[in-house]
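Thread: Modeling a multi-component assembly for a lab meeting

Hi all, long-time lurker, first post. My supervisor asked me to bring a structural picture of a complex we are working on to next week's group meeting, and I have zero experience with this. I have the sequence lines for every component (982 residues in total). Could someone generate the structure of the whole assembly? Inputs are pasted exactly as I received them:
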Amino acid sequence: MSKKLTKRSEDYSKWYNELVVRAGLAENSGIRGMMVIKPYGYAIWEKMQAQLDKMFKDTGHQNAYFPLLIPKSYFSKEAKHVEGFAKEAAIVTHYRLRATADGKGVEVDPNAKLEEELIIRPTSETIIWDTYKRWIQSYRDLPILVNQWANVMRWEMRTRLFLRTAEFLWQEGHTAHETRDEAVKEAEKMLHVYADFAENFMAMPVIKGVKSESERFAGAEDTYTIEALMQDGKALQSGTSHFLGQNFAKAFDVKFLSREGKLEYVWATSWGVSTRLMGALIMTHSDDNGLVLPPKLAPIQVVIIPIYRKDEQLKQISEKVDEIVKKLKAKGISVKYDDSDNYKPGWKFNEYELKGVPVRLAIGPRDLENGTVEVARRDTLTKEIVPMEGVDAYIENLLTDIQKNLFEKARKYRDEHITQVDNFDDFKKVLEEKGGFISAPWDGTPETEEKIKELTKATIRCIPLNNPTEEGTDMISGKPSKQRVLFAKAY
Amino acid sequence: MSKKLTKRSEDYSKWYNELVVRAGLAENSGIRGMMVIKPYGYAIWEKMQAQLDKMFKDTGHQNAYFPLLIPKSYFSKEAKHVEGFAKEAAIVTHYRLRATADGKGVEVDPNAKLEEELIIRPTSETIIWDTYKRWIQSYRDLPILVNQWANVMRWEMRTRLFLRTAEFLWQEGHTAHETRDEAVKEAEKMLHVYADFAENFMAMPVIKGVKSESERFAGAEDTYTIEALMQDGKALQSGTSHFLGQNFAKAFDVKFLSREGKLEYVWATSWGVSTRLMGALIMTHSDDNGLVLPPKLAPIQVVIIPIYRKDEQLKQISEKVDEIVKKLKAKGISVKYDDSDNYKPGWKFNEYELKGVPVRLAIGPRDLENGTVEVARRDTLTKEIVPMEGVDAYIENLLTDIQKNLFEKARKYRDEHITQVDNFDDFKKVLEEKGGFISAPWDGTPETEEKIKELTKATIRCIPLNNPTEEGTDMISGKPSKQRVLFAKAY
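Re: Modeling a multi-component assembly
Sure thing. I ran the full set together rather than chain by chain. Output:
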């Protein structure tokens, strides 16, 4: 790392972009809106995937894989879905290239036009319900609890690494049930799984809630969401779980013979999180020195750097380090010993700080004499000299402590940024000066919601689960409001 | 399972298709040439992925992710590559749909035409080397050892589940090196990794070799391959590793400052295996009763089925089974207890046989009295009564034994189906009557190779590694041959 990152206070957006690239997480490719996820970034995503996949399987789900390309006509089958998803999409129209007349390049072969265009999946409800029609005859075939890890494509005009890209990676769960009640419970269950993952692995506090009608997934009867707050006061929708009612079953004519011997439409859910979570992770914890990673998702949890002048010293240090590495690995802690001689320790310190490695050990000749080691923690940027003896147990506790501290810090920030307001002047003032979530009365109409969005760019992020009723007055319409809802500007 | 599978001896191809669908591995989707990988099939693929991924990481590789869509012009940069890969491909030409005039459907918006068409990746050399250009300046940036797990698309006209589908899943390693020697070693190393995986996990013997020029990957200087033999006497190319020379570095202008301070082109490899391995796995071991899985890749290694009349009996059996399950899980063995009352034991026996579960335990009231359990192995279809006491250790050994037995059986078959011939009449006779690999002299020219392919459909599968030299006469041209090579009809 040659020069410092732009400071968050100077330009948050620039800081984010620089950090993503320089920490080796992702970069723009030569194709508009499509990113390359670099090895270090992908390693974090793999840790997320592994944990989520375990949680899905622990709740009874299995993985499967469905086609990338979906016939255009499938989208027209569900009226709302087509509006939401069949617009900005990548469309395959031909299946062959041929050499150009000059022999120097290739061009689309006009004779190889598809009868029906195929859309690169923006989400897979349609192709999956087309498949479920073949899988479901009777209640004995239910529930179907299937998840897919896949790439999807939405032709976004304004893109930002991880947060909004034309292609992104995600998982999409698609379940089929006998009853409304069972499907609603499934949608709620997966919301809790997402919240558990966000809070206990990403160390990112979230508010669980339900979306207003206009923010719902296209084709859903209800969309549940987890909403997180970024350091710049903007909200980030981090995961959604949809109760789809019988909409897709009706669109694709999927009926089952019920226990009562009647033909009924199947009930459905879908739920997903994506590489967007990488953006959420970065913006929840990182600082002006670079990435800050919660230990549970850090590809490297501990880095050890030798401080030496002579080769003889390096040799002695390395012997000690080998012992420490062995002990740490035995505890399941991932550790990297960076004894490369390309770079000086100072450079390495900066580099691993930039990459968000939770704990750094430095060992020099004096440490060998004294039986000590320098331990630096990334979250607080503090250092301590601790005895070499038992340093593995010390680090194990420290990692737990860092994980907890990151969550608490983020929760404190989030809680301080939920502001109650009762009139639109205060609303605008808080939105402008403080940011964060604003808890305000709402008359429940899309008109008011739209008006607020138009005037301030803030949207209703969610109606929190178990929201208390509270008599109030809508800020815009002056009509009665039965509860407060959470507004925010959002990514 | 209501009716029996078609027998292999009746119609091998029909047997394969029926097995794939009825064992719950995959099925055709509503889109031509694209398959749905069903949960049970995907679970096997996940086991393959997990093991391969571990082997890649153990050999120093990291995962990353590159864009799905590649600009058309990228393909024209490497002359041979464009011929091999830019022809039958899915081509994205537009990025928006709009409502039709009658409001009932959607159509491609002619105003949303891309300036340059994008190709769904058939393989990623071009987009990756376009990226590596940004990553590589000096020898310090080398080697790059990166792998990608991804979906790819090749517009195949004749498709078969797993073996040849328009979309398939695979991994593609792409490495960059300072020297020719290092790149060649990498390509060879990954060939050995593939062979190790095939033999020790899939229990599928393979011949390691190098491809003749006409069978090489488009853009490679050498293609290494592992070739397996299916039960119908046809070969199946199961994995390839390519030494790409400096071809892609030259096409994308990727140079590095060498240790000697000179600007040089980077050396490259790429290597991949795909969901085709599922087809190979199925056709290597399975029988007329269904799938046969090697224990190391079986999602369920042991199934336990209770045999009972009365609920009281089931209760007693279940108590015993709980103990066994606990002990098996402690040994890392995956086990399913199927006490569902939807189906009779006989139905379950057939079903788990169809699904290839390596070991089946059946426990009835008499077993409880005698302290025994019936153990059936899928590979030999034999049964034994063994003492309940210590059955976990018994099964652990049995799984090892089954894994070994499957490999030995397949190796014996393969070895018996390598036939040496010296003239074209014998060649045709063996090919027709016996099948398998034919070891025959070859003059080394593409003309002879082409002639044989034209006349018999057999191709040179490989020139085995460390092939002995042997003076001989080419079967077609009558010219001198310096070594035997392996011919076969292939999938």
